[in-house]
From TrEMBL:
Keyword NAD assigned: no
UniProt KW keywords: DNA-binding, Transcription, Transcription regulation
InterPro entries for the chain: cNMP-bd_dom_sf, HTH_CRP, RmlC-like_jellyroll, WH_DNA-bd_sf
A biological-process GO annotation: regulation of DNA-templated transcription
Protein's recorded name: Cyclic nucleotide-binding domain protein
Residues of the HTH crp-type domain: 147-213
Gene3D superfamilies named among the record's database cross-references: Jelly Rolls (2.60.120.10)
GO MF annotation: an example: DNA binding
């Protein structure tokens, strides 16, 4: 199991805390391995654990009907799953699924609420984080109305690469269809278009970003808008690894 000294560097929210608050938070966490496709939260169910991803990342989706859902966000080592507990609401608003397996710092929800009372910097940081999350959710809600599938796919691939910290990652057609709220044939057409332009390589769900700058140009404006909100409120993000 990795030491907490590794985890301090691994999660940006924790790493930015003053030493006393950082150590207090870490003392109440366990380092766990998240497995691909594990469900960490369901809409309307009680939040029992809080996760600070290290080298894993989590997909956030909302149901559209009984058979369909759409992805509205991702949580990687820049953030936290379960921050809404600080609002006094212990019910999850979203479905949370592990999209990239790896390590995470896990804390019991009761301990998390107790720690919040004695860590003012953490409370302020999470308040800013929730503001950014709401702004990004609003952007995501508007995106499908104004942007074509190819541009939206480019955006989500960039977001995934940012959290995978690698130009190589795995996403199935079915998962991409959920992510974009379109049929699988729409994903095929969009992915083929990006591959024809030599921006990505896509085979049997294995994706490689070949041209990061080109993919950014192909993406809809929501990608840069979301990053601008994050940078202005939370501070500069680390540069992603290029393809």
């Amino acid at each position: 199991m990795p030491s907490h000294s590794t985890a301090i560097v691994g999660n940006g929210l924790i790493g930015a805390l003053p030493r006393r608050e950082r150590l207090q938070l870490l003392a109440n966490c366990d380092t766990v391995d998240l497995v691909l496709s594990d469900i960490l939260a369901e809409p309307g169910q009680r939040i029992r654990q809080v996760h600070f991803p290290i080298d894993s990342f989590i997909s956030l989706t909302t149901p559209v009907n009984e058979r369909a859902c759409i992805e509205i966000g991702l949580v990687g080592n820049e953030g936290v799953l379960g921050a809404t507990l600080m609002l006094g609401v212990d019910m999850s608003p979203l479905h949370a699924l592990v999209q990239g397996g790896g390590r995470s710092l896990r804390m019991d929800a009761r301990r998390f609420k107790a720690v919040l009372d004695s860590t003012p910097t953490l409370r302020r940081t999470l308040g800013r984080y929730l503001y950014v999350t709401m702004a990004q959710l609003a952007q995501t809600a508007a995106c499908p109305r104004f942007h074509v599938v190819e541009a939206r796919l480019a955006r989500w691939l960039l977001m995934t690469q940012d959290r995978a910290h690698s130009p190589h990652f795995h996403l199935t057609h079915e998962f991409l269809a959920h992510m974009l709220g379109v049929r699988r044939v729409g994903v095929t057409h969009a992915a083929t278009a990006l591959q024809t332009r030599k921006l990505i390589s896509y085979r049997r769900g294995n994706i490689t970003v070949l041209d990061r700058k080109g993919l950014e140009r192909a993406s809809c404006s929501c990608y840069l808008a979301n990053n601008a909100v994050w940078d202005s409120v939370m501070g500069q993000r680390p540069a992603p690894r290029a393809g």
